[in-house]
Amino acid sequence: DYDGETRRHYLGVVDSQARRLSELIDKFLDVRRIEEGGFAQVEEVVDIAPLLREEAQLYEEQSRDHSLELDVPEQPLPVRGDPGALRQVIGNLLSNAIKYSPDGGVVELAAGLDGDSVRVIVRDQGMGIPATQQPRIFTKFFRGDVATSGISGTGLGLAVTRDIVESHGGRIGFTSAEGEGSTFWLELPGANGGDDGSKENDPQERKEGET
């Protein structure tokens, strides 16, 4: 017989491992659907501004060691696509920013209009990515040195994220330096396609991180 505290501990371990297995299965299925060209998109106009706020609130509550700073304009940021898939993209980037900042710190989520596109950035103050590993960062199953660091992961999150962004007609990239954190950015075609090109709400200069 186990006492109540011990039972709660083991139940917590079982629950954690079950969630991890479920996440792994979901990511394998995502990769398979994308590779087979079967990633169904919901063609609807999505204002990702409230979506970003909701994801920020969700992930801010997951770590006491991290502070999440949000810079999203009040104006709509409409794109065309699948809201569930777009949530997955932002969730993956925020999850990585927290996971690879084991000492805590600030995670920034910013968005704005950049000409006819909507631009989103996620910046952390974490481990950063060594220059030698950066060309493979979107490769399936690649985890680099973190595979031996005790930080869990499948090496599929960024591969799935890139494929979702590209399936929406967008692009994704990053800048990073080892020990100095990383900035991931993505651009999606705006649904209006007729704005005035103003960059008043652009969260960073376009040239930063472009490849």
- Using only C-alpha atoms, the radius of gyration works out to 18 Å
- The proportion of residues forming helix, as a percent range, comes to 25-40%
Which regions have little confidence, pLDDT < 50, spanning 5+ residues?
Answer: 193-211
Gross morphology: globular
Instruction: Give me the count of strands.
Output: 7
- Average pLDDT score: 80
**Helix/strand order:** HEHEEHEEHEE
Provide a count of the helices. 4
Sheet with most strands: strand arrangement: 2-4-5-7-6
- Structural class label: alpha+beta
The main pleated sheet reads as: 5 strands, mixed
Oligomer: single chain
Amino- and carboxy-terminal Cα gap: 59 Å
Beta-strand content: 15-25%
Structure write-up:
The chain is α+β, with helices and mostly antiparallel strands. Helix content is 35%, strand content 21%. The protein contains 4 helices and 7 strands, in the order H-E-H-E-E-H-E-E-H-E-E. The strands form 2 sheets. Strands 2-4-5-7-6 form a 5-stranded mixed β-sheet, covered by helices on one side. Strand 4 and strand 5 form a beta hairpin. Helix 1 packs across helix 4. The chain is globular and about 65 Å long. The relative contact order is 0.16.
